[in-house]
């Protein structure tokens, strides 16, 4: 049945799915994002059972399966736990390559915080200290932190 | 556990673009081929599991669109939105709950969507998606964390790419069969450090099917049944930063449970061949550590010594693995199918000598958030 198709380009249909969503960021997420926007502060939360400090702040600890109510203000500085320099370009990226993603252990936190590094890419190493650079115009989203830079 | 067996398997050839087949065409072909393989008819099947993903397929309730092609007409169908190893797990559960035979199908066409957008979609929309991270850059973070913890080199990862693309030369279903060198991998285009083009799986199209049955059907299937000896899955935290990416703890736990069920005490000695889902080169040594074939940090050494080569003690991915074809969701089912063919002695040029017990592994989620481990064997 398909022999003749080897020599022809099949008929295709182009489509695009663009669905608007309005995600509630949650009460804990709201306070976290509002603190970025209004105070240039990064907030975490501490589990009452294991004592782990999560960032972004969490409402529950999945491991202990308990509520978290204690807020912790973290220093906007920490160390690079893992990083990658991205060499390909795609419209979903908020910045032109090359740029880096990094998991950053903020001072006072027990988990890694995922964000961007845009400068000094040739100097990046695991364990180096970085600090958050906040955007000039902040609207209550994760990119209110523009990126992290080497200290 | 009651006895259950894999009685029929089928896969399409994996290709960059299957331009002559739509999803349902591929699923129909593998369903019919798996039935032929088992010597069964569609009337012997009383339960259907499809594996598909709505984002990937660009349609809602994507499993329903291939129900007819999977022989699901007038039967019950369930959809697993995840890797085929998890779909097969669900298929097994149905057989254990009283169905006689379940067919599990998986399909994927990477050629039709945009993999960076669809895999960006698996990340948290509030805290991570705006950063633009997707499967490749997340994997690169994991590779970096893994290298940094143990002082591994990019050349060690490159050896996996050389081995698996070379193994693929023996697999007629593989997409990227190539004789390459470590230098070729090292010189391939930079993607996201430390990953280069040949460290990464290709975008693939394809489908696969497997029939899991209880003893009654297994007794009259055409091929020698391949018995399920142990299987388990386990999941860890969602957010990448909450995990230690260099330590696949969910895989270790899934493996521990599967080995306990199968009575395996020393996996390296007791398992004859492994098919594991290494969408990126570094995943093979990391998953070997999680599977307990060596100590943490020694996976790359195991590969470097040739233990996982075709002539080694534990050949890993004789098929060429996911580096040689990665139809997402199908890829894990392909691992289980390849392991089944190895136990049957039907793996052709990629057959490993004297396979009594085989392992297959698949995962879901970025950087292997959730893993499923299968132990299968020829003896009931």
Query: Can you count the helices of chain B?
Result: 13
Q: Helix and strand string of chain A, N-terminal first?
A: HEEEEEEEEEE
Low-confidence runs of chain A (pLDDT<50, min 5 residues)?
Answer: none
* Major sheet details of chain B: 9 strands, mixed
- What is the annotated CATH architecture of the domain at 4-113 and 203-219 in chain B? 3-Layer(aba) Sandwich
Main sheet: strands, sense, barrel of chain A = 5 strands, antiparallel
Average predicted local confidence, pLDDT of chain A: 96
Oligomer: heterodimer
- Helices and strands of chain B: which structural class? alpha/beta
Task: Choose one word for the global shape of chain A.
Answer: extended
CATH level-3 fold name of the domain at 4-113 and 203-219 in chain B: Peroxisomal Thiolase, Chain A, domain 1
What is the CATH class designation of the domain at 4-113 and 203-219 in chain B?
Alpha Beta
Tell me the name of the CATH homologous superfamily of the domain at 4-113 and 203-219 in chain B: Thiolase/Chalcone synthase
Read across the widest sheet of chain A, the strand sequence of neighbours is 8-7-6-9-10
Tell me what portion of residues of chain A adopts beta-strand conformation.
25-35%
The helix content of chain A, as a percent range, equals: under 10%
Q: Give unreliable regions of chain B as ranges.
A: none
| Rg from Cα of chain B | 19 Å
Number of strands of chain B: 11
Number of spatially distinct domains of chain A: 1
